[in-house]
Amino acid sequence: MRRLNPVHWQWPLPAVLAWALCWAVFRELLGQGMALQWALGLSSALGVACSLWGATWWRRLLIAAGFPLSLAASLSALGADSLPAWAWLLPLGLLLLVYPVNAWRDAPLFPTPPHALVDLPRHAPLPQGAHVLDAGCGLGHGLQALRLAYPQAELHGMEWSWPLRLLCGLRCPWAHVTRADIWKASWARYDMVYVFQRPESMARAVDKARAELRPGAWLVSLDFEATTSTPRASWRAPGGKMVWLYQAPLPVPPGESA
Fold it and tell me: Which stretches are transmembrane (predicted)?
């Protein structure tokens, strides 16, 4: 199955596939008699959805922007001027809805593997009805992995992008998914907070966990170690990613000051 997922294909194959799909849909919509600007909007929406295949922010932007830019170049080369100026704002607006500017400093949208967290209960047992948060839940892959690990827990997700929050809610109706800034919303009520961030964000996550998590609560990071704290446990999950587990109050590594 991994070979069939464009996320894992060698670059730029995901981009080429996305652009080809967008053009195919665009031509089909025009063939069905749809107005040019609406065909542009729907085909660009497909490009934004396909941008999830990119492993980095720049690749996502290239995938999403490829179709409207190539269409603009084609119309210019043909001397065509049949699109109103506002129509060219549709692709940008769709991109900003899915990837809000104030979320660009956080991790790119990249799904948690389904079985990445199955060993968590062995290291961090939780009581019935424990509150578990996926901070930055995206499309809900992390929530699904947490549900597999803790079927008895009450699962929560926070996501700033409202289209992703909506899709996550549809994919995970058993979770409480809200639109929120994970750095401004409180983590104090949760027994466990799960993050799949970037290395650059981990120090910030540790600071927030130190300030807000009650003693005994857990911070879980997939793939990236929090170098400003000492993990309670770490292990390699099925699929090869590392899981880093921290418990509040988060200790300071030897030789560093709090």
Answer: 12-30, 36-54, 61-79, 85-104
Full residue range of the structural domain in which residue 156 is found: 120-247
Sign, Cα dihedral of 142, 106, 99, 73: negative
pTM of the model: 0.65
- Contact, 237 vs 117, CB < 8 A? yes
For 86-153, list the strands marked E by DSSP: 131-135
**Per-residue DSSP letter, 83:** S
Distance from chain centroid for Cα 115: 17
Tokens standing for residue 69? 């830019």
CATH code, domain with 165: 3.40.50.150
Residues 125 and 92 in one domain: no
* Residues 154/131, Cβ–Cβ less than 8 Å: yes
3-state secondary structure 164-184: HHHHHHHHCCCCEEEECCCCC
Residues 209-243: tens digit of each pLDDT: 999 999 999 999 999 999 999 999 999 998 899 99
Beta strands in the chain (DSSP E): 131-135, 154-159, 176-179, 192-195, 218-222, 233-236, 242-247
Domain boundary at 69, 99, 129, which? 99
- Is residue 105 domain-resident? no
Domain count, the chain: 2
Q: pLDDT tens-digit profile of 12-31?
A: 778 788 888 888 998 899 88
